[in-house]
Amino acid sequence: MYVETGKMTARAAAMADISSCADCTIRSGAICAGLGGDTLHEFFRRGRRVKLERGQTLMWEGDAAPVVGSVRRGLLKLTSMLSDGREQILGLALPGDFVGRPFGGRATSTVTALTETSLCVFPRAVFDAFVADHPELQHELLLHTLDALDHARRWMILLARKSAGERVASFLLEMADRAGVADGEPAEIVLSRQQMADFLGLTIETVSRKLTLLRQSRAVRLPDLKSFVILNRAALSDAAGGEDRLAA
Amino acid sequence: MYVETGKMTARAAAMADISSCADCTIRSGAICAGLGGDTLHEFFRRGRRVKLERGQTLMWEGDAAPVVGSVRRGLLKLTSMLSDGREQILGLALPGDFVGRPFGGRATSTVTALTETSLCVFPRAVFDAFVADHPELQHELLLHTLDALDHARRWMILLARKSAGERVASFLLEMADRAGVADGEPAEIVLSRQQMADFLGLTIETVSRKLTLLRQSRAVRLPDLKSFVILNRAALSDAAGGEDRLAA
DNA sequence: CGTGCGGTTGATCCGAGTCAAGCCAAGTGG
DNA sequence: CCACTTGGCTTGACTCGGATCAACCGCACG
User: CA Rg, chain B, in Å?
Assistant: First the structure.
């Protein structure tokens, strides 16, 4: 885990902090949205910018999890390990999302970077105390948590009731929409086939087969392993099964 | 939907409110925990006590959902309807749990009473405003939401990875634990077989078969349709599959 | 060149869904 | 009081979708 801050004067640190917030592309969607200049600065001073390489883990399920954080850039997965050693992906964290468990005991999931990722990380005790003093921050955190809950519950429906083909189609739709990629344009598949399987509650072979079927039906094009293009959104949406709509 | 309040003098209403809170058995676990006497009274004055009969619905998925509430007594289900008409139960709400979606647009699930239920219900706009003015209330709501999120994510694992037998066993364990019933003592199954199936992402036939197997293996006894007794917790826990532990 | 790893494809198996029949307890009407 | 219905549950026979096991492909890397 590489931490960007080093030794510097208080003034230099403050300037770095301010510029950090000023150039932050996700402020509007993050929990720090709505914090005034002074409060924002106070808040930021308590955290650190952390950069994770692909594959690095921020916290482990069950650990005392000393930190929470806000994603600035990149993509992380939240996972839980099963007794048989397989892992289930519980969700993804994108820029603006919040990770970790404030006011709690142990971390409820393992948080791992899927791409190079940058976060604002806070010691949990410090974060908890600061939130207690700043209702507007707590409010943003509450909104984020409510959204995450809604999203998790929609995903429950997919896992409980959708067929393998529907899951894969739903996944592609969600990836394209979250990335804001238009139909016809190539969108990135950030996950490996194994990770897609872990996410969708399937096996790698089934994921592969269903992708092949979607390609053969001309709903999508798969130029390479890590990208896809929506050729026929209606067909894809149809294959996703009514779309009780996972999109937030 | 039967609303208990009628016309009464301000003083009588206030007394009713106070006694309502005083005799509330779930205060400690509800979002109103930690509200001081005056604030609690203020808060309570803004809501109403609502009683739902078994089967009555408090709000519908997708509706503008004008209310939120805190469960005092009884049991409700949160459901979402699939395009094919089947429903998936997203979660249960027990005394102390919070239902509805504050600060949001539409209700994200349908909320229906499974037993006779009593709630403190608030108009959403009123609730939102009151929460904004009372950080301690917002804090409690946040804690509840974080817990609900953790619970939903654990349930995702069950739906994504567990076999039918494991799901049914996990369900029985959770029911017994939530009701605080000791092994050997009869515990209530509040749901019908159909509702269990909707909850576990199975069909009614499969639920029935797996219950029969558990009975035959002497893990549980099923005196009648609506109750069960844990005879061998080790066996049941084993059948639940390692128990990556759904209990909070 | 091999060697290894991620992905695809094929053959087979098994668990849960589907369809259908029957059971039992609680109404309901003659 | 008894035949008949009704609704929730169980059980059985069969089907089918996705897991499993296995072979193979293609590419990166030593």
Answer: 19
A 145-184 residues inside an 8 A Cβ radius of B: 145-146, 148-150, 152-157, 159-161
State the best of B159, B196, B200, B243 to mutate against chain A, taking most chain A CBs within 10 Å: B159
B246 belongs to a structural domain: no
Same domain, B18 and B124: yes
> H helices within B118-232, ranges in order?
124-133, 135-161, 164-179, 193-200, 204-216
> What tens digit of pLDDT does each residue of B116-173 get?
999 999 999 999 999 999 999 999 999 999 999 999 999 999 999 999 999 999 999 9
Residue of B nearest to A155 (CA): B156
> In which domain, by residue range, is A54 found?
2-147
**B246 vs B248: CA distance, rounded Å:** 6
A56 touches strand C (CB under 7 A): no
Regions in chain A scoring below 70 on pLDDT: 1-20, 22-23, 25, 27, 242-248
Cβ distance of B157 and A78 shorter than 8 Å: no
Contacts of B246 (CB under 8 A, 6+ apart): B151, B154, B155, B158, B170, B173, B174
